[in-house]
Sequence to fold (182 residues):
Amino acid sequence: MILLFLPLLIYGAGSLGSSILKIARQFCRHILVADIVEEKLKEAQKSGATYTIHVQRENFQEKVLAYTQGRGATVSIDAACVADSLQLLLQATGNAGRVITMGFSTTPVPVNPFLITSKELDIRGSRLQNHMFGKAIEMIREGKLDLSHSVSHTFPLTEAQAAFDLADRHDPSVRKIVFTFS
Ligand SMILES: NC(=O)c1ccc[n+]([C@@H]2O[C@H](COP(=O)([O-])OP(=O)(O)OC[C@H]3O[C@@H](n4cnc5c(N)ncnc54)[C@H](O)[C@@H]3O)[C@@H](O)[C@H]2O)c1
Fold:
């Protein structure tokens, strides 16, 4: 397996970001993770983040440059999907880098197109269509991917509403919620 030392930036260390981190660790040795919750950043460090950035307490752009020898991230993944995250990642990504959007919001957000043009950035979306489920199952089966801490709550399907209410509270303790069928 080829290990990449090019810097990967994961913006958001919640349920999605922490899963991306665990997979990225298999291929990449230089990973920056940013979030606004200290607890999430500590978990990211335990899961193998090389550097973490607290977006509200630190200067995000300065830290990205400091952790990438002034070049910016090679690939940035938006796993927070908040209103300003795409623009922040366009700034934080280096020349000829790639920015991956993951959000489902349909609300337009302001971005500076000159960042895309001048750095010749590649912007891509990611959802479910990459035919990688088989590979993911294989990685879990082979013990390369440990998702044991990814599930925080389990509900019987008959209590689905309580599960959705819990998810809507966005408590930092909530990760993946699994429904069981009796
Ligand atoms: N494209 C896909 O396949 C896919 C899959 C799952 C989730 N998503 C989307 O990804 C997003 C995140 O999902 P999730 O389940 O991980 O949610 P989550 O609530 O578990 O995680 C979001 C994380 O972003 C952090 N965050 C919030 N505001 C931030 C900010 N301003 N700066 C930095 N970090 C910030 C939160 O602290 C949290 O850790 C959602 O919009 C969801 O719809 C997309």
Q: What stands out?
A: The chain has seven helices and eight strands. The chain has two domains: 8-125, 150-180.
